[in-house]
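Hello Y.,

Per our agreement to keep a running log of every chain we model this quarter, I'm adding this entry. I've kept the format consistent with earlier entries: sequence first, then predicted structure.
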Amino acid sequence: MDLDVINPYTLKILISCREEDSISQISKRIGLSYGWTYKWIKDLADIGVFTLTRMKIYLNKNNPFYKSTLEYINNTFKKSQRFYYEDLSLFGIDYSFTNIDAVYVWTKGGYNIARYKDHYPIFIKINSKDRKLFEEYCKKLKLNINKKSGVFYHVEYLDSFDKSYCENMPVDSLKETIEFMEKNKYNFEPALEMIKELYNKKIKVEYKEVATNV
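Predicted structure for the entry above:
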């Protein structure tokens, strides 16, 4: 029976769920219809992961299936840069990519700088009201915050901030991102050229990659 409930949807449910939750809220966070979310949560309840009432669901944190599946998720994805980016959407918090990551998002992954395997900060803004919830998710999933090595979130907690969307990712506005790059122009001239061409922006850029014939 346990094998029957292991799939991408139940993994997202187990990542997204809180100790006290509701099917409708989990449905919104994981982007799955209410009916299918109910089906998978009911299957998880049948093996003891959740206790269901008419309006609420309660997580049984000591359930063996939950503990072993969470351990699998932690061991498999804790060093994955991609997981750090993708799991944020499952938390149900107010966040935005900023700084180097705003450049990364707006250039559609075309420009990345000052990061490598052993030092990969992911720059985000988190609404202060969601700080506790964000840190609880990071603890649950063993995700690093403000460390000096490995993959980690470099977090700025703010009471409010404006954000835009690029390919469904919350991010600093293009205007704000351009201003950030122009303040650090020496490092971001190639990215400014990409932005100029991608979005038809009037940006003065001197950098141009030299084409050579081999």
